[in-house]
C-alpha cells in the first residue's frame, strides 16, 4: 500500500456544524478544504435530504449558518462590492443572506453594524444576536456614518499602539480583547431596528430562548475577568419586560440550555478539583432557584485529539425533556442522553469520536471520526443503535494508503491503570529494528484515542513506530483522575515513562537508541520537563510549550488563573511552587537535541515560553533549533494556514529524520 505523505492533508475534507431544519426533513452542514494557492481554507454549505447530500454554495466563504425555517438558510457573508470595500477598511458589520432551497440565489436580508456571533431565530422578522462591542465606543453600532468614520479613522491612526487596562488583555485566536465586550441584541426587521439587551460593562456569557423569553447570563466584567459569579436575567422579546432570575457569586458558569419547558444550567464551584472540574447540571426554577439535577463527574463534551478537524458544531442538543450530549470516556467520544430525573443514558458508544451532532426524533446525524477514517457524516437510529455512513468525502484521500491501526496497550503505573496505543510502521517486519516517536497530548485535560491523526500516520508510513497514551491528568475519566494540581511533572511523568518502558518491552523491534519524543501545549510542557529529567530520547520536538510558570502567569491569556490553580501555588506567597514545576529550572540537566515550534500570536502559551527554553539550551551548548511562525496562534497544528501547517510538520519530521535515521 502507498504511504501517507505530508502533503496529503491538503486533500482532506473537514466537516462541521450539522443542523437539522425545523421539522427534521433535511439538515445542513459545512464542508471545508485547504486552498494552498491562497494559503487559506474554503468553506461551503451542503444539504442532507432523503439519504443523500448535495452542495448548496460555492463561494468558499460560508462557514456559519442557522435555519430561518424548514426551507430557508440564514448565513453571514461578504458578497457585494460595497461589503467587500467595507471589510477591506476593517469596518465592523455583519451582513446576512437568505438561501431558499426551493430555488433562486442567496439574497441579502439585513446588515448589522457590529461583529455578530450567535444568532437565534425568534420568528422570521425577529432575532436574538450576540455581538462584540468596544467599551470605549459602546454605542458605535448606533452612530451615524460620519461618527463611525471618525472612530475608524482614529483607529487607523492608532493601529501601532495598544493600551491595556484589563486582564486578560488578549486571548488566543482573538488577538487583543482589552475593552471588548460580548453583548446581546434584539434585532427586528421591517424596519431594521437593533436594541441592546445587556448593559455594559457586563459581559454576555450565553443565552437561550424559552417561550417568549430570552434568558441570558452575564458576569460583572471589570478590570479583571472574574473566575466566579454570574447573573441570570430573562427578557420577554415581545413585550420588553425584563426580570432578574438569580445572582450567584460562588459558581463558575459553563452553559445554558432551554430543555422542554425548563432551563438547565451547567456550572461548578471548582472547590473540589479546581478550574478543570467537570460541571454539574442544575435546574433553574421559574422563581430563579437552583436545584441540582445531576452531580456529573465526567465531561459533557468531546475532547479526543486529532489534527483533521475544522469548524466545530453542537456538543449539546435539547429535545423534549432531555438533553442529548457528547461525553469523553477513556479514549472515545460517545453520545448520551440526560433526562429530567437525572439519569444519563448511553446511546452510541462506538470507538472513535463524534465531533458534532444533531437530533430529530429518534434519528441523529453525526460528524464523526470512525474506523480510522477521516470525518464523514453518519445517520444513527437512537432506538435501535443502527449506524449508517452517509458521505464518502474522504474515501479517495485514503484510497490504497497505509493507515496504521492502533494496537491497544494498557499498563499499571503508580497503582493506576493507564491506557494507550501503538502504531506499527508500514511494511512492518518483526525481524527488523525501527525508530519510534512518543507523542504526548495537550490539555492536560484531553485524550488521545483510536482516531485518524495525520502526523502520527505520516510517521508510521515513514517507518516509525508511533505510541501515545492518556496519563493521569487526562480527560475520559472522573474528576479525581484528571486532577494533577501541584503534581505536574510527577505522577504524569511517571505514567509516561512507565508506558514508554512497556512499549519497548512489548515491541523489542524498537531501537532504544532511536527514540524521538514530541508534544504540544501541555505535551510541550511535558517535552520540556522530560528533557530536563532524562536523556533516553535521541531528540525531542517541543511545540507551543510551557517552560516557566512564573512568566506564564503574567503573559498567558489564562495564566493569572491557570498557573496558580494547576500548581497549587501563589505568585505572591509561594512562587517557589511555580518555579519547582517549571521545566526551565532543570535545563542544566538537558542533553537532548530539541526543536522548538512556536507562534508569535500564541497567547495561550506565549512565545517567551519557547524562547526561554531555546535560549537556555543554546547557552549551554545543547543542540537546539526554533522555528517561529508569524501570524499563527496556539492552533497552528490544527487550523493554521495550510502552508504553515506543512512547514511545521516538515520541521518536526526533518528533526526526527536527522537524529533517528
Write the SSE topology.
Elements (H helix, E strand, L loop, with lengths): L12 E8 L5 E10 L4 E10 L2 E4 L10 E2 L4 E5 L4 H8 L5 E7 L6 E6 L2 E9 L2 E9 L10 H13 L12 E2 L3 E2 L3 E9 L4 E4 L6 E8 L2 E7 L10 E7 L5 E7 L3 E8 L2 E7 L11 E5 L5 E5 L21 E4 L2 E8 L2 E7 L5 E5 L3 E9 L2 E8 L5 E6 L5 E3 L5 H4 L8 E7 L2 E8 L10 E7 L13 H8 L3 E5 L9 H4 L8 H16 L3 E11 L1 H10 L7 E5 L5 H7 L3 H9 L7 H6 L13 E6 L7 H13 L4 E6 L6 H4 L2 H19 L1
Parallel strand pairs: 33-34, 33-35, 35-36, 36-37, 37-38
Antiparallel strand pairs: 1-2, 2-3, 3-4, 5-6, 6-7, 7-8, 9-10, 10-13, 11-12, 13-14, 15-16, 16-17, 17-18, 19-20, 20-21, 21-22, 23-24, 24-25, 25-26, 27-28, 28-29, 29-30, 31-32, 32-34
Quickly describe the structure:
By secondary structure, the protein is of the alpha+beta class.
Description:
The protein is of the alpha+beta class and 661 residues long. 18% of the residues lie in helices and 37% in strands. The strands form nine sheets. Strands 31-32-34-33-35-36-37-38 form an eight-stranded mixed β-sheet, with helices on both faces. A hairpin with a 2-residue loop joins strand 3 (40-49) and strand 4 (52-55). The model has no long low-confidence stretch (mean pLDDT 96).
Strand order of the largest sheet: 31-32-34-33-35-36-37-38
Could you report the average pLDDT, rounded to the nearest whole number?
96
The description of the largest β-sheet is:
8 strands, mixed
Strand-pairing-aware structural class: alpha+beta
What is the number of beta strands? 38
Q: What is the helix tally?
A: 13
Unreliable parts: none
Radius of gyration: 25 Å
Strand content: 35-45%
Helix-residue proportion: 10-25%
Shape: globular
Oligomer: single chain
First-to-last CA distance = 22 Å
Amino acid at each position: 500500500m502507498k504511504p501517507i505523505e505530508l502533503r496529503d492533508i491538503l486533500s482532506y475534507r473537514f466537516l462541521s456544524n450539522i443542523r437539522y431544519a425545523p421539522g427534521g426533513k433535511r439538515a445542513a452542514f459545512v464542508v471545508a478544504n485547504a486552498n494552498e494557492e491562497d494559503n487559506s481554507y474554503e468553506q461551503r454549505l451542503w444539504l442532507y435530504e432523503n439519504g443523500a447530500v448535495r452542495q448548496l454554495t460555492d463561494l468558499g466563504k460560508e462557514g456559519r449558518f442557522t435555519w430561518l425555517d424548514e426551507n430557508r438558510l440564514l448565513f453571514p457573508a461578504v458578497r457585494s462590492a460595497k461589503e467587500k470595500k467595507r471589510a477591506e477598511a476593517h469596518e465592523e458589520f455583519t451582513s446576512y443572506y437568505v438561501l431558499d432551497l426551493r430555488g433562486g440565489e442567496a439574497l441579502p436580508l439585513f446588515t448589522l453594524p457590529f461583529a455578530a456571533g450567535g444568532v437565534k431565530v425568534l420568528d422570521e422578522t425577529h432575532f436574538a444576536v450576540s455581538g462584540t462591542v468596544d467599551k470605549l465606543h459602546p454605542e458605535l453600532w448606533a452612530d451615524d456614518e460620519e461618527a463611525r468614520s471618525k472612530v475608524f479613522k482614529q483607529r487607523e491612526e492608532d493601529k501601532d499602539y495598544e493600551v491595556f487596562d484589563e486582564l486578560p488583555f488578549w486571548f488566543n485566536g482573538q488577538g487583543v480583547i482589552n475593552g471588548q465586550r460580548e453583548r446581546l441584541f434584539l434585532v427586528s426587521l421591517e424596519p431594521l431596528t437593533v436594541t441592546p439587551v445587556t448593559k455594559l460593562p457586563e459581559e454576555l456569557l450565553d443565552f437561550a430562548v424559552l417561550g417568549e423569553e430570552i434568558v441570558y447570563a452575564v458576569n460583572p466584567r471589570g478590570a479583571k475577568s472574574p473566575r466566579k459569579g454570574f447573573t441570570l436575567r430573562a427578557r420577554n422579546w415581545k413585550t420588553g419586560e425584563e426580570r432578574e432570575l438569580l445572582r450567584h457569586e460562588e459558581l463558575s458558569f459553563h452553559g445554558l440550555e432551554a430543555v422542554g419547558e425548563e432551563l438547565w444550567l451547567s456550572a461548578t464551584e471548582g472547590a473540589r478539583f479546581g478550574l478543570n472540574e467537570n460541571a454539574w447540571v442544575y435546574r433553574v426554577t421559574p422563581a430563579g432557584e437552583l436545584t441540582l439535577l445531576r452531580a456529573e463527574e465526567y465531561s459533557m463534551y468531546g475532547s479526543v485529539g486529532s489534527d483533521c478537524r475544522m469548524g466545530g458544531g453542537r456538543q449539546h442538543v435539547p429535545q423534549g425533556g432531555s438533553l442529548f450530549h457528547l461525553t469523553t470516556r477513556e479514549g472515545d467520544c460517545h453520545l448520551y442522553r440526560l433526562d429530567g430525573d437525572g439519569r444519563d443514558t448511553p446511546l452510541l458508544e462506538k470507538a472513535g469520536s463524534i465531533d458534532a451532532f444533531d437530533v430529530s426524533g429518534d434519528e441523529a446525524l453525526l460528524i464523526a471520526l470512525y474506523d480510522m477514517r477521516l470525518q464523514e457524516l453518519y445517520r444513527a437510529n437512537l432506538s435501535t443503535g443502527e449506524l449508517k455512513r452517509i458521505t464518502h468525502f474522504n474515501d479517495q484521500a485514503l484510497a490504497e494508503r497505509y493507515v496504521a491501526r492502533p494496537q491497544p496497550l494498557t499498563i499499571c503505573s503508580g497503582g493506576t491503570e493507564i491506557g494507550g496505543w501503538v502504531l506499527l510502521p508500514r511494511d512492518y517486519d518483526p525481524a527488523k529494528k525501527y525508530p519510534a516517536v512518543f507523542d504526548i497530548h495537550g490539555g492536560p485535560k484531553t485524550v488521545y484515542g483510536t482516531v485518524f491523526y495525520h502526523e502520527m500516520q505520516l510517521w508510521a508510513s515513514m517507518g516509525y513506530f508511533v505510541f501515545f497514551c492518556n496519563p493521569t491528568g487526562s480527560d475520559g475519566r472522573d474528576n479525581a483522575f484528571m486532577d494533577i494540581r501541584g503534581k505536574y511533572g510527577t505522577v504524569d511523568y511517571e505514567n509516561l515513562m512507565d508506558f514508554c518502558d512497556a512499549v519497548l518491552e512489548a515491541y523489542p523491534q524498537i531501537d532504544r537508541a532511536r527514540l524521538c519524543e514530541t508534544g504540544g501545549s501541555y505535551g510541550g510542557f511535558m517535552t520540556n520537563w522530560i528533557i530536563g529529567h532524562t536523556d533516553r530520547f535521541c531528540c525531542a520536538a517541543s511545540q507551543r510549550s510551557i517552560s516557566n510558570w512564573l512568566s506564564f502567569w503574567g503573559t498567558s491569556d489564562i495564566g493569572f488563573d491557570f498557573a496558580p490553580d494547576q500548581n497549587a501555588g501563589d505568585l505572591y506567597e509561594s512562587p517557589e511552587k511555580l518555579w519547582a514545576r517549571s521545566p526551565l529550572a532543570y535545563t542544566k540537566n538537558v542533553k537532548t537535541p530539541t526543536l522548538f515550534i512556536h507562534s508569535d500570536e500564541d497567547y495561550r502559551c506565549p512565545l517567551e515560553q519557547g524562547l526561554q527554553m531555546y535560549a537556555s539550551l543554546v547557552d549551554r551548548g545543547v543542540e537546539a533549533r526554533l522555528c517561529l511562525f508569524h501570524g499563527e496562534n496556539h492552533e497552528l497544528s490544527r487550523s493554521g494556514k495550510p502552508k504553515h501547517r506543512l512547514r511545521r510538520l516538515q520541521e518536526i519530521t526533518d528533526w526526527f529524520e536527522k537524529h533517528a535515521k
